[in-house]
Specification:
By secondary structure, the protein is of the alpha+beta class. The protein has two domains: 39-131 and 176-208, Penicillin-binding protein 2a (Domain 2) (Alpha-Beta Complex), CATH 3.90.1310.10; 216-478, 3-Layer(aba) Sandwich (Beta-lactamase). Helix content is 38%, strand content 16%. The chain is built from 18 helices and 17 strands. It has helices at residues 2-29, 31-35, 41-47, 85-88, 99-103, 105-109, 116-123, 140-150, 178-181, 186-198, 220-229, 269-275, 278-288, 290-299, 323-330, 340-351, 393-409, 462-478; strands at residues 55-57, 60-67, 74-77, 91-92, 96-97, 133-136, 155-160, 167-173, 237-239, 243-244, 253-254, 266-268, 362-366, 372-374, 422-429, 436-443, 447-453. The strands form five sheets. It has a six-stranded mixed β-sheet with strand order 3-2-1-6-13-14, with no helix packed on it. It has a five-stranded antiparallel β-sheet with strand order 8-7-17-16-15, sandwiched between helices. It has a two-stranded antiparallel sheet with strand order 4-5. Helix 13 (278-288) crosses helix 15. The chain is elongated, with a radius of gyration of 27 Å.
Length: 482
């Protein structure tokens, strides 16, 4: 009997000890985490007492806070609605934050850890000052032109400055309105969330940076770069054949329609690029070998996500390719996938002499008095053994001329702008019922651009569907006459 009582007493003491440890763990170790948990109502109320700084494009606020009479003192609003939604994201009492609202939360609340003066002011009790303003590199005119040119079609446009890496346009359709998601009404938020979440068009997905597509013939920029870096030249001859007999397979690669690109016989790499000849570039890929193709793609940024204020999906090329896979990859098919952001970066590297730059969308951050706290995060995209040089200046100059010829006298004619040196490459990638249409190019050394229109429709090509979109955006950015 006494043995059982002793065991029971020991069990009770053990339970009390466990309870004591748990209470002290909560009180001493987890107190800060619990107090700052997003679900904690006091934290939410305290955060909504802060007037978040505006997000600004061309001196106009595309995200701003307005004062209310409710418990949540400030309401976040987005005057342009869906136009910048994938960039700004939302600031929600239920859904928390997304986009730049999440990535730059500390800056927008005016409490970045690196700004000692602001932290010291908070410690001294001077709370209540507004957050910092964030000025973006985006062009309002360019963003509107991308929206208008897509005309409701699914697609994405990314344009950037090839010299600095500043993102000028980042627009994807379908998009969404962040205003109801940022309401102070939980019911309104949940209803809006259910609508966009269940929409089969997936408007919450930013196709400019979060979706990858087979790049089709726009990948021939990379294949041509690998060839030029190996010592071949734009005038190097290749068989001008309707179909390339791919080694180790009966699935050969031909043109559409099935005919030579020229008059038969031989054709230069320059002309094969201008006419987008699949047999030539499939052959070229196999002759170069998979390692040369993969290494050139990686030098342009494949297989690693770009450093950017928002998360970008990495563009991909497999690490090993047999000859049939190499032939398909050389024309941007098989398992090659790219984001519009990545393809715009490639166009930028060609346009600026071969340097691969870090993209950035934040131009400046200023405190409430207007004092600049930080500038753009610009420079070469270096990582590991990669030094930010995609190709030599000589190769970049040769690629520029090849791309100019493709616009002036080839498949990219719909992107031509009078009086402006425009270069580009079209792509028509076979995927699903109808192809994805691409255009990747540049205007002078001022704009690098990538346009993709997935599932563009029967008979669609990059030249007919995507190139006119690119032209309209470039015209808006240049301020040129259409």
């Amino acid at each position: 009997m006494s043995t059982r009582i002793g065991r029971l007493s020991g069990l009770v003491l053990l339970l009390f000890a466990a309870l004591f440890v748990n209470l002290n763990l909560i009180a001493l170790v987890q107190a800060d985490d619990l107090a700052n948990h997003p679900a904690n109502r006091r934290v939410i109320v305290r955060e909504y007492q802060i007037e978040r700084g505006p997000i600004i494009v061309d001196e106009r606020a595309i995200a701003r806070s307005i004062e209310t009479d409710g418990e949540l003192r400030f309401l976040r609003t987005y005057p342009e609605g869906p136009l910048f939604a994938h960039l700004t994201g939302y600031y929600s009492v239920v859904l928390q934050r997304s986009g730049l609202e999440a990535a730059l939360n500390e800056q927008l609340t005016g409490q970045p850890t690196e700004v000692v003066a602001q932290n010291l002011g908070e410690l001294l009790g001077t709370r209540g000052q507004p957050g910092n303003s964030v000025e973006l590199t985006i062009s309002q005119a360019g963003q509107q032109a991308a929206r208008d040119a897509l005309a409701g079609r699914e697609g994405a446009v990314v344009a950037l400055d090839p010299v600095t890496g500043a993102v000028l346009v980042s627009y994807a359709n379908p998009t969404f309105d962040p205003n109801p998601l940022s309401s102070h009404s939980p019911g309104e938020i949940r209803a809006a969330w259910d609508e966009v979440r269940d929409d089969e068009r997936q408007p919450l997905v930013d196709r400019a940076i979060r979706e990858t597509y087979p790049p089709g013939s726009t990948f021939k920029i990379i294949t041509a770069a690998a060839a030029l870096e190996s010592g071949l030249g734009p005038d190097s001859p290749f068989p001008d054949e309707a179909v390339y007999d791919v080694p180790q397979t009966t699935a050969n690669i031909g043109n559409l329609p099935a005919s030579p690109c020229g008059r038969g016989g031989s054709i230069s790499m320059q002309d094969a690029f201008r006419f987008s000849c699949n047999p030539v570039f499939a052959r070229l890929g196999v002759e170069l070998g998979d390692r040369a193709l993969i290494e050139q793609a990686e030098a342009f940024g494949f297989n690693r996500p770009p450093p950017y204020e928002l998360d970008v999906v990495a563009s991909r090329i497999p690490q090993e390719l047999d000859p049939p896979q190499t032939a398909q990859s050389a024309i941007g098919q098989r398992d090659v996938r790219a984001t519009p952001m990545q393809m715009a970066l490639i166009a930028g590297a060609v346009a600026n002499g071969g340097e691969l730059l870090r993209p950035h969308v934040v131009g400046r951050i200023r405190d409430p008095s207007g004092r600049q706290l930080s500038g753009p995060d610009s420079g070469r995209w270096t990582e590991g053994l990669l030094d930010g040089r995609a190709v030599s200046p000589r190769t970049a100059a040769q690629l520029q001329q090849m791309m100019v010829e493709a616009v002036e006298r080839g498949t990219g004619g719909a992107a031509r702008i009078d009086g402006v040196r425009v270069g580009g490459k079209t792509g028509t990638a076979q995927r699903g019922a109808t192809p994805d249409a691409w255009f990747v190019g540049f205007a002078e050394d001022r704009i690098a651009i990538a346009v993709v229109i997935p599932d563009a429709g029967e008979g669609a090509t990059g030249g007919r569907a995507a190139a006119p979109v690119a032209r309209q955006v470039m015209v808006a950015l240049l301020g040129a006459d259409a």
